[in-house]
Amino acid sequence: MNNLNGKSSDVRDLTGHYALITGATGGVGQACAEVFAKAGMHLILAGRNQAKLNQLRSAVQQQTSVDVQIVTGDVSDPVAAERAFSHIKLIGNDTVTVLINNAGVIVRATAEETSNSDWQHIMDTNLNGLFYFSRAYAQQAHSDGAIINISSTCGSVGSAGLAAYCASKGAVNQLTRAMALELAQRGINVNAVAPGAIDSPMLFSGHSSTAVADSVVADNAKHIPQGRVAQPEEIARAALFLAQQRHITGTILSVDGGYTTA
After folding, report:
1. Helix 130-138 / helix 163-183 crossing angle, nearest 10 deg
2. Could you tell me the fold of the domain covering 18-195+230-255?
3. What is the rounded distance in angstroms from the CA atom of residue 10 to the CA atom of residue 2?
């Protein structure tokens, strides 16, 4: 079915197209690789650890018949984005159809406790890296695609002890909205998934003690109306949904069990 301006209102068929995933070996990144591969998308997995990338590629290829490429580098380096988008041409394709900006880090510190280096590290990874990859995606000569940014509920509501992380994710949300407007006429959707607590490595990292880390799932679940934290695949399925929809853009989709509604 087509709408009045001739643009398709059908769900975007992603089969046989390429998705580029940053931070691919993290909990959500790995889940995105598995979910998008099952949807028929070929993958370009980007990350810093080549051994882990190779392991993920083997795991995905054992489950599906899609092509899986890997590129190594740190998203905070603008050259990493250029290299990743050059790789698509090296394998005989013109463009990446879906970009999933998943790479991210967290520092658990109040504003007054946050060092200059920690602040810069958060911004370089969570915001600058996302910008470099999004810019490289937009510079492709194509239309009809999607950028999915993995944000956080911390981008919309404050969280004491996560000052730099909250600031970075708030900026991600605003960049999502701005680029959605800039790319709308090209049929490129730009959205963000904003998870609450996820049962993934980041949830357990950076705590003051092992005891605190061990209790973090239960502690977070107490503040979530549904009474549990999310699994990585739930975030990946939300990302796939947004990648398929042509008329949703500029949206920050909360996947948090009701946390930001309470």
Report:
1. 10
2. Rossmann fold (3.40.50)
3. 8
Residue pair 216/199 in contact by the 8 Å Cβ criterion: no
Which tokens belong to 212?
Answer: 């605190």
Distance from C-alpha of 146 to C-alpha of 97, rounded to nearest angstrom: 6
pLDDT tens figures, 27-86: 999 999 999 999 999 999 999 999 999 999 999 999 999 999 999 999 999 999 999 999
Q: Rounded distance, CA 169 to CA 239, Å?
A: 17
Examine the residue annotation and report whether 259 is marked as an active-site residue of this protein. Answer: no
pTM above 0.90, yes or no: yes
- Cβ-proximal residues to 49 (8 Å cutoff; 6+ apart), any chain: 25, 72
**Residue 185 DSSP symbol:** G
Catalytic residue among 18, 132, 137, 165: 165
| Angle value at C-alpha 165, between 115 and 128, nearest 5 degrees | 90
Alpha-carbon distances of 184 from 71, 90, 176, rounded to whole Å: 29, 28, 12
